[in-house]
Amino acid sequence: MMRRTARRATAAAIIVAAAGGIAPTSARALDEDVMTNILSPIYLAKNLTAVCAKLDQSFIEDTRGRTGTAAEVTQRMVDQVLATMTRDEAAPIVVAAARHARAVGLGMIRAQSGGSVDDQTERVKRLCERTAEPFVRGVVEDHETRPDFFEQMLRDARQG
What are the alphabetically sorted keywords of the record (predicted)? Predict the structure, then answer.
């Protein structure tokens, strides 16, 4: 009985969509987890860039790519990801990816707490130099040297 009801509901949805009552947003399904996993490191790179650049302006030049600063390149990456989705598809993905990136970034920074403010600042600067800079540079360089791979990941996130 339940299967028949589900089949009828599915059939009705297909008929309504085919009749133009509901415009399908995409011919292919979106894998939200994959899109979240693509966006999370981009947001983490953006967050680390913002924090580290406040502590040391040279971070901006040290993470610069061929096509712009890390902030510019990562924003283009975000725009490229968002262009593959409708607003309704993107909303929960952006929220989840931003939460993941924020949690990781804050965890990295909180691990540097303790001691005097100067000691904490020095530890965060070291984190920026030793961990954040190579990570951000890697995100930027990987995107600039392998744009086809990035585009393929986005296509793969669309199943079908």
Answer: Signal
